[in-house]
Amino acid sequence: MALGAAAPGLEVPPQHEQISHTKLSADDEWNLQQERMYRMHRGHESMHVEMILIFLCALVIAQIVLVQWRQRHGRSYNLVTLLQMWVVPLYFTIKLYWWRFLSMWGMFSVITSYIVFRATRKPLSGRTPRLVYKWFLLIYKLSYAFGVVGYLAIMFTMCGFNLFFKIKARDSMDFGIVSLFYGLYYGVMGRDFAEICSDYMASTIGFYSISGMPTRSLSDNICAVCGQKIIVELNEEGLIENTYQLSCNHVWERTRFLYGQILDWLRYLVAWQPVVIGIVQGINYSLGLE
């Protein structure tokens, strides 16, 4: 009997065709991965419940700890959070090969490092306060514009307007999410670095001291930020910047701050959420949960 021939009366088992992943579309590849994940975790419902409970408990405990830390030691909390926000995206950028974000992150880091260096020098140059103000004003405007464009792009996609321009929903949604993240991320970073620079400059000039007793005072026509003469009056509309009076009666030229409170949640999302997830994964691994 030839080896290649089948014996009479015996059925040849069907040969399953190997699926070539190179022939699958992106959606089919995603569906295949989801099916494999479902088969792998089938029958582990009780284990998944335990993992969810651990995750929720970790979130609650982390939130309590962070709130107490911020209330009791606000300065150290802000510095550590800023460091986390600066380093954590760099790790994911290199790991996921997001070179576009890495290039923007590098440019922002180099220029901001120079601005911080100038703001922390003693004696303080007379041009430094205006330089600091102009740089972070630019960051504010750019981040605000990116945030608005990203939000509009997301709404544009959800309403289906992308079909009129023959733009794929995935492409327009990705553009909106990336633009919104850029706006929020660099908005928070610029805001935090601006506070650090302003504290250092105020302490160097003499408007602020640790003991709480300033060594200098301001005239009514001098800006509390840059130390230069105020050109735009309180109730006057300026072309570039307007003049505002703080609750402490200091007069400050600044732009309108519309979404500052919205940026606070991003600190927790970028800086501390990866830490919480890492702790949860460590607990699950030690308990044998998968």
From TrEMBL:
It comes from Equus przewalskii (Przewalski's horse). The keyword Transmembrane applies. Keywords: Membrane, Metal-binding, Transmembrane, Transmembrane helix. The keyword Protease does not apply. It is a multi-pass membrane protein. It is found in: Membrane. The chain crosses the membrane at residues 47-69, 76-92, 98-117, 138-165. This is RING finger protein 175 isoform X3. Its main location: membrane.
